[in-house]
Amino acid sequence: MFITREIDYAFRAVRALAGGGKLNIKQICERESIPTEFGYKILKKLSRAGLVTVIRGQGGGYRLSCDPDHTTLLDIASAISDSLFLNECVENGYDCINNTGDRKCMVNRELCRIQKVLDAELRAHSLTEILQADDQQTPAE
């Protein structure tokens, strides 16, 4: 699965921090309905990727350290998971058993097309654009 629950929680954690300022783990998790045990794990990965800064000590917390104008959903998802593929058959080097001779697997071909479109869409919009759209629009139908 491409967008796992962990990636969804990461999107939400970044959204909570995008307002500026510092938040602690409890504030982030309560604000975005993230289980605390996932919150720690996700914020650690976001920190390793340079998207979030950890502020240690009394009164510590987390702060967004990436530029929202140049950070995309694909950047956030990539910080959480090494494998961002719809299916294993779209990974480079996968040898589909349904490829025989000069006949290629039609499902693989279609999934590869969809993967490219999905990657392009996730890469096309900055975090700033997404947050502005979130403020201005009603939920999708």
TrEMBL record:
PROSITE patterns: HTH_RRF2_2. The lineage of its organism: Bacteria, Bacillati, Bacillota, Clostridia, Eubacteriales. This is Iron-responsive transcriptional regulator. One of its GO terms (cellular component) is cytosol. It comes from the Bacteria. SUPFAM superfamilies: Winged helix' DNA-binding domain (SSF46785). It comes from uncultured Anaerotruncus sp. One of its GO terms (molecular function) is DNA-binding transcription factor activity.
